Amino acid sequence: MIKKLQLLSFCLLLSVSAFSQGFLRTDGTKIINDDGEYILRGIGTGNWLIQEGYMMQSTSAGVNTHTQFHDKLVETMGQENTDKFYDTWIENHFRKTDLDSMKAWGFNSVRVALHYKWFTLPIEEEDTLANGELTTTWINKGFEVTDSLLSWCAQNEMYLILDMHGAPGGQGRDANISDYDTELPSLWESEDNKKKLENLWIKLADRYKDSPWIAGYDLFNEPNWGFTEKSSPNGCGCDNNDPIWELHERLINAVRTVDKNHIVFISGNCWGNNYESLSKHSLKDADDNMVITFHKYWNNNNSDVLNGWLKMREEYGLPLWMSESGENSNTWFSDSIMLYEKNKIGWSWWPVKKSRTNNILKVVTPASYSALITSWENKAPLSKEETFAAVIDYAESHKTENCVIAPDVIYAMTGQLDNYTTKPFKVHTTNAPILFADYDLGRDGYAYYDKISADYHIDNGGDWMIWNNGKFYRNDGVDITEFNKQPIISWIEEEEWMQYTFNVAKKGKYTLEIQASAKENEGILQLIVNDKIVVENITLAKTGNSEKYTTTSIKKVALPSGEVKVKFKIIKGNVNLLDFKFNK
Known about the structure:
By secondary structure, the protein is an alpha/beta fold. It is built from 15 helices and 25 strands.
């Protein structure tokens, strides 16, 4: 009886809280709800329900996929401890507090990356019936977790997109993403896998058909499979993607047997971007509540980059949704998102959290977990007890309160949707040290200038571009590393600069003190106050040791009262900058 009451409360919550907005749906080339056109602004949950080796930091040990990680744990600490770990992992990695925070920071949706194994068994573990068909065994865990997530979305009035990130058998050769096992039949090579995916979507659609805070169903993420000889193994250059369109149509028809309310999202080949042969396929006319998706990584953000997608939107009369992007710098984020917003295209970033600087929540990796990965690399595994303790530590580190909030990433994504404004990173005052790493929030060319501020290697035809050589503290082009647990700016080059906004209580002459180190050559800075050069050259002495810092003082620096914007421009680099202070 208690479970029935809980379910009733859950359903009432969903229906009441969404009453004012209604179901998200399509209207020609727009996505709308009852209030009009709606732009999805979200992030994917990433590593929560489908683990990828790079986010688990285990690729160096040859552990690349969700199943490989699971099996490695079973091998080293047993099934019981592995089950305990995954219970803790799911409970900690993404919680209501994460969603509450996302809402407060300006996001209105979340794309949950699902693995089918939380909902049903692999075909290899199912029984075969007398007629040759396989049974379908359902697992409650996935449905329970999705129910909880949906209830949090309803309470926050945020939309939820169900993203089948790991389909039965794996939908792409990129195994890190899809959990594809080369020794087993893929989604494309097995009718049983296709049938299982079909059954799963019917089950999900039937369960959530009356939930207005479900935005829709992303039927399978980033298919990447070469179907023709002209294609790459991942489907790039493939001119006949009929198997993808046929499966989409099959899944849409299956969903529509139980749910006519929700959007269905379709994805092209080549990690979601190759739509060749769609024009000659009946899928383009299969449904009147369908959205074309695409993914965008590591390319330019100029006005031409969306032309092909905009043309497709008009040709098919369907809305667009940029369903996955990220893994770049703040400037790239802001420029890309502004481009989508200008063209009325919703977007979803990737992912909410991991152990890097380019997410809204940065996970601090415990020493115990780093030691575990090292032991795997060296093929000298830790004990059962040590392994269990390490992975539990890693699960604990993913709690919101144990992560580092990244205000620079948040501002880049939701604070600059249609502007180029800057604002202080922290509250700065005179007579107190200001870290050089605490320059203003904002784009390259506005809050700072750096010669490499983003990765555009896809369009530039070159190597991956590192925008922050230290990969520390912030996600801008400014290169930051650590000294005595303090962030310092390093690898600086001529013409680069950083801006700091603070309030000066009293106009007057101040003494500027700069703490810096210069191992081999002296450095030279230029001080600019409110766009006026105040000190032409500030010479920072050679210290002979990059870890030896000295103070350089410049007297009688004039500062006006009120809000002041100070820039330090690099005239001669090869120095490390710790902090500065204006003393009265």
